[in-house]
């Protein structure tokens, strides 16, 4: 190719790139913001990680102190120069409420992305009428009876943990990578209480060549991003890591279909399990919807999609916040003693907590909420606008801003909960900031009608476990509090949830 031709081709490509960029910038009304090479949620943006030149998936956390022009703007735009679509981000609670308030009026569209692309349509991924259909099926399973079962099973699993970890006689224990314990507890509880699936603490396979249900689900939750990125043909290569990932995903799918068929047999009356017939758990509701005509019908893939998604989302998010709560209480011993005094007042040492007892633990709940504020398990709420909407912003100046139809809006939950305009001293663990706060104002579970359906389940599970654990053990950090806080700063997305990095805790038996 001659030099003039090369010049012409280069100029043409540059012209196309500039035109594309200008169109993308205009699509977000030229709102100031970031102009990276790649969109954070694109393949290349995610692969390169967070660098000074590339936001990556973890930019909301890594840049939480300086993002949104040092929190002087309620709304910014992100227009990539090379790859990925443009989007609008907000760190304002007020703007988030305005946008999501339009959900019922304009039918905001929720991009399918991970949840639907991996498992099929489900309550997390669905939009509009489809979401309402899924919610009407799942919500009736979340009853006081279910929450009572969560309390009973949490007590049982706590005892299984003490025995399984050989802590029964120990007075002092050092637990490296404490994160694994809440993950295992939360996984067992959602399996037993939400789906009636047996999962013991000692999850040992009868056939050593196969992964257990629990191990398969653990691997699946840890490799969601890998499953999306790695081409299918790579799993056929003789690479042990890929082989295990593929075995876990295919094995979990097989487990799910087996459980589904078993529950279908029960509901048809093909077995003699009276207890199973009386179940009102999520799995029973989903299976019943397969044989229902009309608007509340689900096909088998939708049932599988809901099982996968609810299991992964429910156990990852709660476990992450439990770990963060204990990490902060280990560092801030004065807060831990306040919680201990509250627990021993609400629950006698010889008694197991009841569902009613948990309502007498407001400060423990405040600690849970504050840990969740600092490490929100759900990093973003994403919607695509199906119509133009107007929003009022306060920063940098008070004005009305129009967001156009087709705009991808990202409510940045990390930036929102580290916004000093809403939460003064956002990096400081301060449970008292939640004193007297109504459930409606606890924004970490989302906003409006589509706020997390499992909020109560998560509260009951977390409060019960934390009450049992903190009543029995005084927790400290094995290194300096400053070093531990620095280690806790190494947070990121693990599976589908945002969580603190690995932490170690020292446990001393109270009595």
From TrEMBL:
Signal peptide: 1-19
Cofactor(s) required, per the database record: heme
Pfam families reported in the protein's UniProt record: p450
Residues that hold heme according to the record: 452
Pathway, per record: Secondary metabolite biosynthesis; terpenoid biosynthesis
Predominant subcellular localization, coarse grouping: membrane
GO cellular component: membrane
InterPro entries: Cyt_P450 (IPR001128), Cyt_P450_CS (IPR017972), Cyt_P450_E_grp-I (IPR002401), Cyt_P450_sf (IPR036396), Cytochrome_P450_monoxygenase (IPR050121)
GO MF entry, a single one: heme binding
Localization of this protein: Membrane
Keywords: Heme, Iron, Membrane, Metal-binding, Monooxygenase, Oxidoreductase, Signal, Transmembrane, Transmembrane helix
Similarity annotation: Belongs to the cytochrome P450 family.
Identification of the protein by name: Cytochrome P450
Annotated source species: Mycena rosella (Pink bonnet)
